[in-house]
Amino acid sequence: MVLAYHLILSAYGFWLPNDQRGSWSDFVRAYELAVFGPATKVNTRRSVAHQPYDRAVAQQMKDALAHKPVVFTGEKARVIGAGFADYHRRSGLLIHACAIIPTHAHLVLARHHLKIESTCEQLKAAATTQLNHAGLHPFADEPYRNGRLPTLWARYGWWVFLDSVDDILRAIRYVELNPIHANLPSQRWQCVTPYHA
Fold first, then answer.
1. Is 112 within 8 Å of 95 (Cβ atoms)?
2. Around 86, how many Cα atoms within 13 Å sit in the side-chain half-sphere?
3. Whole-number Å distance between alpha carbons of 126 and 5
4. Whose CA is closest to 158, among 4, 1, 3, 5?
5. In 3D, which of 132, 56, 70 has the Cα closest to residue 104?
6. For the whole model, what pTM was predicted?
7. Residue 12 and residue 14: Cα distance in Å, rounded?
8. Under a CB-based contact definition with an 8 Å cutoff, are residues 140 and 133 in contact?
9. Average confidence score pLDDT of the chain
10. CA–CA separation, 133 vs 17, rounded Å?
11. N or C: which end of the chain has fewer CB within 10 A?
């Protein structure tokens, strides 16, 4: 039985659908990326981040995007955390760990009444709303003709089902250490509720 989830929310431009290491995408939507080849779909839930790849090609792909890849600066990260906290308060979602680094966010979430797909989208929407209110949306100066802004998030999210206490504790430790591995200070977020088995 699923007890919790390890959720990763990627910023726009962080992990592309035809990344040489693999992706969860079935196809490449953007023409500017399609010239680099088809989607590199993998079926594993294990991270492929440490697989070898050509960094020069990866940079060419990012340079070809319609918008610059999004980077969560310290101020943006704080506002995103406030968005997660707002959703936590409104929905009752328990967040047992959170790390927001420049290209993505890691969260460990208790099982909730919504499916993880919906929870993922709700968290992204809450963070985006807070960035809009703070005047920090990275594409605020690039609206579409209809006035809407491009999304600052990658499509969907990536999650792992956690079905044991050991899995949950391991995921929490991984998330808590994530900023340190990215050469950032450790993080404490007001939306985090300590996990008790």
1. no
2. 16
3. 19
4. 5
5. 70
6. 0.89
7. 6
8. no
9. 90
10. 30
11. N
Long-range contacts of 88-94 (CB under 8 A, 24+ apart): 88/191, 91/122, 93/119, 94/193
DSSP string, 14-42: SS-TT-TT-BS-SS---HHHHTT-S--B-
Which own/partner contact pairs does 144-151 have at CB distance under 8 Å and 24+ positions apart? Answer: 150/12, 150/66, 150/67, 151/12
Q: 């960094």: which residue's tokens? A: 55
Quick one: tokens of 137?
């949306």
pLDDT digits (tens, 9 = 90+) for 7-29: 999 999 887 777 777 676 777 77
- Give the model's confidence band at 187: pLDDT under 50 very low, under 70 low, under 90 confident, else very high: very high
* Residues 93 and 109: beta-carbon distance below 8 Å: yes
| DSSP-derived pairing of the beta strands 4-10 and 104-110 | antiparallel
Token pair for residue 191? Answer: 């939306």
Buried b (16+ CB within 10 A) or exposed e, 13-23: bbbbbbbbebb
List, in order, residues 6 or more apart from 105 with CB less than 8 Å away: 8, 9, 72, 80, 84, 98, 99
